[in-house]
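User: Okay, second chain of the day. Same drill as before: sequence in, structure tokens out.
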Amino acid sequence: MKPANRGALHPHCESPRAEKNGDDTNGRPAVTCEPNGQEREDVADIEDGVRNARSIAWFNKQPAVLIQITKQGDANVIDTVDRVKAMLPVLQASIPSAIKVNIISDRTQTIRASVSDVQFTLLLTVVLVVLVIFAFLRNFWATIIPAVTVPLSHIGTFAVLYELGYSLDNLSLMALSIAVGFVVDDAVVVIENIVRHLEEGASPMEAALKGAREIGFTIISITLSLIAVFIPLFLMGGYVGLLFREFAVAVSVALVLSLLISLTLTPMMCAYLLKPHSREHGRLYRLSESAFDGLLHVYEAGLKIVLRHRFTTLMVMLGTIALTGYLYVVIPKGFFPQQDTGLIIGLSEAAQDISYPAMLQRQQALIDAVMQDPAVDSVGAGIGAGGGNTTINNGRMYIALKPSNQRDVTADQVIRRLQTRLARIQGITLYMQAAQDITIGGRVSKTQYQYTLADADPGELNRWAALFLDKIKALPGIVDVATDQENAGPLLDITVNREVASSHGILPATIDNTLSDAFGQRIVSTMFTMLNQYHVVLEVSPKFQFGPEALNDIYINSSSGQQVPLRTLVKSVVKVAPLVVNHQGQFPSVTISFNLAPGTAIGQAVATIQQVEKELGKPLSLATSFQGNAQAFQASLSSTPILIAAALVVIYLILGMLYESTIHPITILSTLPSAGIGAVLLLMAFHFDLSVIALVGIILLIGIVKKNGIMLIDFALDAERNHGMTSEEAIYQACILRFRPILMTTMAAMLGAVPLMLGTGAGSEIRQPLGYAIVGGLALSQFLTLYTTPVVFLYLDRLTKRSRSRRQSGHDVSPPASEQSQAGE
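Assistant: Same drill. Structure tokens below.
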């Protein structure tokens, strides 16, 4: 028997005094108890220990206690970690000096670095946008005036976010970075129109009033329709919707504030700060102006060719719609980009009949092998119940990597390298996954994505789970397939022979208690001191606990005092039984988890597993479902087309009300397919999935690209109605006069996304798809829409006029009301 705490005595000893009396066969001191001054035989080894001797943890090969700290839902994670770190010196001072307190992994390190990187990206974006404005306007005050919009709109956005209870995180800062290119658009369009009037000879006050009046309706149309594109993000359900609602709110608030600033502060600053146009300019101005004029002449020449070949251009535009649909089907679909947070989570698995000492040895072998990798900084590991483990044959491991600037490989590459080394260790497997900042739902599993089978019949469930496991292991692109099915554990089924036990006066409860004492760890007493309390834990020496043959060494006192062998009282049979039975929704379940091979998207994995379902022809009683990120991916993928369609309908209705037309909004929306093509092509070129982040970029493109169409159509309609131009003349003049503001605003939005696209700092993996989608979409749409939009306008304008003339001719030939009345009579 092993009482397991320092100072604990054999439970039958009444005296608190114990002394050493020789050594036992293992070299450990035996203890003689002396109750009432009488000696007794040695009956136990007394050792210091833990309450559960079958659970242990390590930190870098040293025994340790692992503590995982999780913040409350409404707490600031950085503030929480700072306060915890501030308490560590106090904790260290209150414990023995031999015990050291170390941090295995601080997840806020990547958060801090990511926030710092986004802040730098935000400042770089502001600089790039200001340089774009200066390059086109070449005037100090004309550059400063729209630049003022950025800090004012962002400060106002901070105030609104604060009142709504939002915090500054990666998503909100990413939204503000993207908003830089948007919020200056309104001011750029206003000031460009004012500068154009100044160049025509108007005074600053006249130019400000006239320019703001002319462009005010266009600015309102652009902003309202741009906010409308966030409808999919506002309405997106589930955890993904909650994540991106804050993103949508941040951008929308910034846009509303920029609209107010552009229609009020910007014209006022232009009236008082801009100077009358001068005909004399420096050499740099003349060179830049000649370069812009050359670019305008190239565009003008191409526009004339396009207008002469309208049908071909229209077919190109229709082809872009078909190509957009095709690319959407073929591009791999993802959820969130895989991040390198510097932490790898591992779950080890050994044979289901492994003993605790053998598991202890194999887990330590894993730790030794992992510590040899040059990219690993520290390792925390443990086995035994707790931390998500319920059985002895499973262990857990937290692998903290060195900072990214001190290693030349990513977390996923470290995992692949470790898998090669760990494969040499026999009898145990370590399943690893890179920890992610965004993990939705799911459950503790050996690898990243989960697929669950549930059935009311455990036998049927186990049979089909094995079939699914074999099939999924053979699928291309799916690696590290594991299961939580633990149904092959050894079971010693003991049946009490009640007649024999009764003849010896032994109760079944006595047999139960004896077996519990022999193979379990029972608290038989508690010792109390001034400062603490200590449990006395009773167990048989471990060398007598291995295998069914241990029953041969157990004896039970009969009612007559005779010791009866337990073997004569029971019948035992070795069977196979589950170590653990998992449940989902009150039904037994088995979860198969997996990782993705490099270059494989979660959408491809989901599709292939669904194909396996069809091929196997599972019974109706077997329910299957994806869990965690895979389930959230399915939900977002199924709802995205509907939400985008809803956004397009709302944009159409808004534009229809603003222009009082059912035709011209179609012209504006015709600019969208080319943006989708550019975004998807650039994502595919750089091997990015169509993830949720990339999809947000495409949604933003809907708002950015249609701005070009709004500026062209708004000017052309005004030229037709107020200046008596024909449709061809109006759209031609609109393209020429609006070329510079379209180019300016597009370049501003594009350069606002370039830092996100090229960023390599902490957390950049989650921002890059957004940058690539916006840059690719703007680059292609800028080229195509300047040519296709005029052609679509002319075709739809002709259709509108024909429809109007038919209605008018039908109205003219109809008889007067008096004649209709007489005819009726």
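The chain has 25 helices and 19 strands.

User: Thanks, on to the next one.
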